[in-house]
Structure formats: C-alpha cells, structure tokens
Amino acid sequence: MNGAAPSPVVLLVEDEMFVRMTTLDMLEEAGCTVLDAPTGAEAQALLEGAHIDLLVSDVGLPDTTGQDFYAACLARFPGLPVIFITGYGAGDLEAELTGNPLVTVLGKPFQSRSLASAVARALERARAARI
Predict the structure, then answer these.
(1) Is the peptide bond before 109 cis (omega within 30 degrees of 0)?
(2) Average pLDDT value for residue range 121-129
(3) What is the C-alpha to C-alpha distance for residues 5 and 16, in angstroms, rounded to an integer?
C-alpha cells in the first residue's frame, strides 16, 4: 500500500449522453472515481448505496432541477459539495446561490483543467467546512 489518499468519489448527473461521457472522462483524468446517472431519480438511487465526496450536476435535468436535486441530497447528506454545470449563463445561477461555500457554478462548455480546478477547490472548501 502506498499511503496515497483514496481518489474522491464523484456523482455526475447529466442527461445529455455526450456531455456526460466527456465530463466523466475529464473527471477520471483528474483522478476521480466517477458514478454517473442521466436523471435525478437514478442519481438518488446511486447515492443510497455509495459514499459520495462531490456532486457534479447539470442544472436542467429531465425529472427535476439540479438545485432541487441538490436540496434533497443536502437533507440526507449535509456538507456535500456540488459543482453545477450549466449552459444557461453561470452568472445568473451564481448570483442566486451566493453565500453557499459548498456550491460552485461552471459554465458550459468547459475545459478539462477548469473542471479539475473546480473539483479541487470544491473538495478543499468541503474539507475546510468540516473543520
């Protein structure tokens, strides 16, 4: 055993297959273990059976909004950080969600290094909030 920290487990919720697979690849390249789902309901089922370190969710899901799904997650898993990915203008969503240090908004399209950086910051803020 090399003593390295385990890779963070990320739950990716994105209904568009191409975006989900591309984002999944980016997260794995950043050293994450990734579980993925196309809907909030499927993601909720995954949450019940696994420890999740970070939620990466599209804002517009077919069966719920990313914000409503995250609120349900927080009720059951307080302190769970989230990166919302959106193509609808990150500024509007950021303004709506200011004040929550566990929330990051990343506008689509994004590059691998932007996502990796957002993941690192989100995990660090979550660790700091637990201290």
Answers:
(1) yes
(2) 89
(3) 31
